Amino acid sequence: MTAFNPVTPALLDQLAQIVGAGGISTAQADLDLHAKDQSQHAAHPAEVVIWPSSAQQVADVLKLANTHAIPVTPWGVGTGLEGNSIPLYGGILLSFERMNQIVEVHADDFQVTVQPGIGHKDLNAALARYGLFFPPDPGANASVGGMLANNAAGIRTVKYGASKDNVLKMQVALADGRLIHVGSRSVKQSAGYDLLHLFVGSEGTLGVITEATLKLVPVPQHMSAVVAGFPSIQSAVETVVAVRGSGLDPAALELVDAAHARMLNSVDGVDLPETPVLFMEFHAAQESGLAAGLEMVQQICEEMGATSFKSTTDTAERKRLWHARHHSYEIMVRMHPDKTFFINDVAVPISAYPELIAYVEQLRDTRGITCYMIGHAGDGNIHVEFPYADEAGHALAMEINGLIVMKALELGGTCTGEHGVGIGKAKYLPAEHGEGLDVMRTIKQALDPNGILNPGKVLVEA
Amino acid sequence: MTAFNPVTPALLDQLAQIVGAGGISTAQADLDLHAKDQSQHAAHPAEVVIWPSSAQQVADVLKLANTHAIPVTPWGVGTGLEGNSIPLYGGILLSFERMNQIVEVHADDFQVTVQPGIGHKDLNAALARYGLFFPPDPGANASVGGMLANNAAGIRTVKYGASKDNVLKMQVALADGRLIHVGSRSVKQSAGYDLLHLFVGSEGTLGVITEATLKLVPVPQHMSAVVAGFPSIQSAVETVVAVRGSGLDPAALELVDAAHARMLNSVDGVDLPETPVLFMEFHAAQESGLAAGLEMVQQICEEMGATSFKSTTDTAERKRLWHARHHSYEIMVRMHPDKTFFINDVAVPISAYPELIAYVEQLRDTRGITCYMIGHAGDGNIHVEFPYADEAGHALAMEINGLIVMKALELGGTCTGEHGVGIGKAKYLPAEHGEGLDVMRTIKQALDPNGILNPGKVLVEA
Q1: Nearest to B190 among A111, A185, A417 (CB)
Q2: Which CATH class, in words, describes the domain spanning B336-420?
Q3: Residue of B193, B196, B407 to mutate, testing the A interface (most A Cβ within 10 Å of its Cβ)
Q4: How far is B190 from chain A (nearest CA, A)?
Q5: CATH number of A102-218
Q6: What secondary structure letter does DSSP report for A166?
Q7: Backbone angle region of A214, left / alpha / beta, with phi > 0 → left and psi within -120 to 50 → alpha
Q8: What is the ipTM for the molecules in this complex?
Q9: Which of A56, A288, A341, B279 would you label with B230, given CA atoms 20 to 30 Å apart?
Q10: Do B114 and B127 contact (CB within 8 A), yes or no?
Q11: pLDDT tens for residues B66-110?
C-alpha cells in the first residue's frame, strides 16, 4: 500500500470549493459520529467529513484525493457489521446523507432510480403507493448504497435474492474521477463484461456508487406465515430442503435454535416451542394458492416429525407469529444489558447446514461459551450471536468465530454470507479464494493504483 | 493488439504432449467443422483443433499459447449467433466436446457440477430422475460452457433468470495457465469481488471456463399455457406489464407479431390469430393455484382488449398451443428455402417496448424489407428476423439492424439481450457503455496482457 498524505488546510480549501462550505466539517463531533459502525471493531476517525450533493462532486473529490494520495471511505448510515465503513486510515469520510433522493420511479418497468444515501425502508415507504417494493431487507434501515456495496441480503433473500440480484444499473465514480455507468435498465444484457456485479459487493474499494437503478417487485397480495417446532436441528433442516424441493417458493425460511427460542420466550407475549423452530412466510397472487400451499407445508412438517405447527393467512396473526423473529436481536440485547454482541455470518450449501450447526453446538458445549443461533436457513446462512463482557470474552468469541469460519469453508461455504468482508473477514479470504484472490488484487491495482478507496478493507496485505 | 505467431510444427508437438496424440488435429475437415457458428459471420479456420480432456490440460494449453503469443478460441458446440466462437485470428481452437460429463449432482442443494462441454438439453435429460432442471433454454442444445460464456437466456428467463442467474461457482483457466475457482456453492456469498459474474458473459476473452456448478430448480408439478391475440402490439405489451404487475410470475411471456403469426399459420395444424399474439406459461406447485391464476390472466387479457384467448392446464393441449412458438424458427426457415437469416437481438425496459416495436414496424414499411418479430416480451427482448438472398439483402438487413440497435440504446436498452457481443455487436459497445468500455479494456489488459483469449471478440480496437 502506498503511503497516504495528511489532509492539509490547503486541501480542505479545495474540498470546500467542490462541495461548498456547508458540505464539509472537521468538527470532532462529526468525526466521532462517522468513526464506527454497528460492529465490534474499534472506532477510528477520519480527518474530514464531506457531504457531497451530486455524483459530480463525488467524482471531483475522488480525483483530488487520488492526486494527493488521501484515503477516501464511503459512508451510508453506519449500520455495517464488519467495520466496512470505518475510515481506518483517516483521510476523507464521504457521507451520502444528503444524496438520499428518489431520482425517478419507473413504475411500468418495476424499477426505481435512487441516490445511494436513501434508506431502504424509507424507499419502500415511498414506493408503497405504486404497489411495488425493493425486497432485500437486512433488518436495519441501511442505505441502498451501503447495501449494494456490501451485497446485503436478509430474510427475504430465499425468494427474491440478495442486493446483487435486485440492481440493474449503477453510476460509479472511479478513483481517478471518471464517472461511468454500468449495467442497463434492460433486465437482459449480454453486452460485454458485467461491471455492475464487479462493483456490487466491492465495499467501495473499486469505485463509489453514486446512483442505482433497482429492480422492484409487486407487493404480494396475500401472505401466510408458519411457525413450526422440531425435535432436532437435523429434522428442521430436512424440512427446509423438502419445502424448497416442493416448489413452494417460500419468501422467508428462518431457523432459531432451542437456546434462542428459550431466551425469546422470556419476553411477554412470545410463546415459541423451546425446540429448534422454523419461521416461514409465503407470498401469492391469489388467496386460494396460499391455502393449498399451507396444507402442503403442514404435510411436509408433519412428515419430518414437527412437534408443533401454527399457520395463518391473517395479517395480524401473521405479524404476531413473526414478532419474536423480527425482534430477536432487540430482545437478545435487552436480555443481556451488560454485554456487547459479536454476530458471526457464515453460509454453506444447504446439505451441509446440519453439520455446520452440529459443529457450533459442539463448540458451544465443549468450550462453555454462551451463544445463540439464528439463521436464514433457506439460504444455508447462519448467524451465531456471542454476548461478551470483557476482553477475554471477546477473544474467545473471535477464536470460536475463526473455527466456525474454517468449518464453513471446509463444507464448501463462505466466511461471509451477507455482512461483507470489511475489516473482520479479510484474513479468511486466502482460505476461501486461493489464487482467485490474486485476481482480485490485480483488478484492485488496475482500478485504484494508489489504493485510496476504502483502504484496509477486503484486500489486506498479507 | 499484439502480433500473433503461427502454430509451428514444434508447437504442435508440445500441444500433443499436453492433450495426447488423439486430442489434436490439423486435418482440414476438423478445421472446417470449427470455423463457423450458426451466425451469418464468415467462416475462419483455426490452425489446429484441440480436444482437452481435463481442466489441467486446458490450463497447460493456455500457458503454452500465452508464452508463444498464439490465439486461443474456446468452442462449445458452435450454436452461437454472433460469431462468438469463430477463430478469427487462427491459432488454437479449444473444443470442449470431450469435457461433457456431469461431475457431481448435489440433489439436496439443487445444484449440479458439470464440465463445460455438456449440452443443456442432455444435462436436463440426466437430471430428470432427480426432479430438477437447469432452467435457461436458448433453444438449441448449446453447451453449458458456451451458455455461461455468452450469458445465454431464452424463453424461461422472465421467471428463472439468464445463465448468469443460474450459476454459483466456476473453475476458470487464466491466460497465464493459472486455474482458479470463482464463486461458491453457498447460494449467498459477500466475500470479496464477484469474479464469477466477471467471467460469465466475457465470451472467453478473460479466461476459459473449465467447470461450473449450476443452480437447479424443482421441475414444476403443474403447468398451464395461454395463447391470446390482441388488436395491437400496444395492447399486447400493456398486457405483459399488467400480468407481471399482478404478481402472477409467468414462466414464459412471448410475443409474435402479426406477420409472423400469419407466416406460422401456413403450416398444417397451426391456428393462430393473425394479430399480435402472446404466448404464456405458468408453473405452480399446486393445481388449484394454477386454475386461479388462469382466471386472473383471462380477466387481464380481456380488460386489455384481447380478441382471442385460449388456455389449458392439460399437458398435450399445452404442447399443442406452444408448438408454433417452439418451432417458429424451423417453420420460418422452411417457408424461405432460398434465404439466409440474420437474427437481431436487442432489449429495452418493458415500458419502451411498444415504441421499439413501432419503430421496427415503421422501418419495415418505409424500407420495404421483409422481417418477422418474435420476442421474449416479458423481458423487453425482441428478435427481428431478416431473411435475405444476396449481398444487397444482407447489407440492407445490417443497416436496419444498426438503426434498431441505436433506437434500443436511445430507449435505455442494450445492443444484445442474450446473444452476446461476438463479432457483430462489438462496434455498438462504445455507444452503450461510454467510458465504462475503457474499464473493460483495463480489465482485459490486466488479465490477458498478450490478448491471446478469443481475439477479435467483445473488445475490438477502435
Answers
A1: A417
A2: alpha beta
A3: B193
A4: 5
A5: 3.30.465.10
A6: G
A7: beta
A8: 0.96
A9: A288
A10: no
A11: 999 999 999 999 999 999 999 999 999 999 999 999 999 999 999
